[in-house]
């Protein structure tokens, strides 16, 4: 690693997307807004908002990774680590935006289906409870017979 570079690591619970990638600069976003990191930066910890992290290497080519929030650590002025739930890397911003929109639409559709399934289960449970509580025609309206015991 050269003196004016950083090592970038981006990891999710299921995968390490980038590990020790040599970069020159990084831009990210937290609740206070966008910020930049270069070699020699003071140790730093912040909570990222869902956003796109941008960096460039010695070749000055911009790289991107959409993150679903997470935590960014700068240590020793040479290492930048990001831990997040989801990461979607991309080489161009337009392509990354399309992937993120598609995933977001898929997640919204899955949530909608889950809500519909939940409502159906709830309605079925209510119908079964009402059927159980409704007096049976052969019981003569007696609660004891509905509960399965006979009067004495």
TrEMBL record:
Record carries keyword Oxidoreductase: no
Q: Tell me the name of the encoding gene.
A: atpC
Q: Which UniProt keywords apply?
A: ATP synthesis, Cell membrane, CF(1), Hydrogen ion transport, Ion transport, Membrane, Transport
Pfam families with a match to the protein in the record: ATP-synt_DE_N (PF02823)
Q: How does it sit in the membrane?
A: Peripheral membrane protein
PANTHER family associated with the record:
ATP SYNTHASE DELTA/EPSILON CHAIN (PTHR13822), ATP SYNTHASE EPSILON CHAIN, CHLOROPLASTIC (PTHR13822:SF10)
- Main function: Produces ATP from ADP in the presence of a proton gradient across the membrane.
Recorded protein name is ATP synthase epsilon chain
- Which GO terms of the molecular function aspect are on file? ATP binding; proton-transporting ATP synthase activity, rotational mechanism
């Amino acid at each position: 690693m050269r003196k004016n570079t950083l090592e970038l690591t981006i990891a999710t619970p299921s995968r390490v997307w980038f590990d020790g990638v040599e970069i020159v600069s990084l831009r990210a976003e937290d609740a206070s807004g966008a910020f930049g990191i270069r070699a020699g930066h003071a140790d730093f910890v912040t909570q990222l908002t869902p956003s796109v992290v941008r960096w460039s290497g010695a070749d000055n080519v911009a790289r991107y990774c959409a993150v679903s929030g997470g935590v960014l650590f700068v240590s020793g002025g040479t290492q930048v680590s990001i831990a997040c739930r989801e990461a979607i890397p991309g080489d161009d911003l337009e392509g990354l935006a399309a992937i993120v929109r598609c995933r977001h639409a898929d997640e919204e559709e899955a949530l909608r289906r889950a809500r519909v399934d939940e409502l159906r289960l709830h309605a079925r449970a209510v119908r079964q409870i009402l059927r159980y509580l409704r007096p049976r025609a052969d019981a003569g309206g007696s609660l004891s017979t509905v509960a399965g015991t006979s009067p004495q």
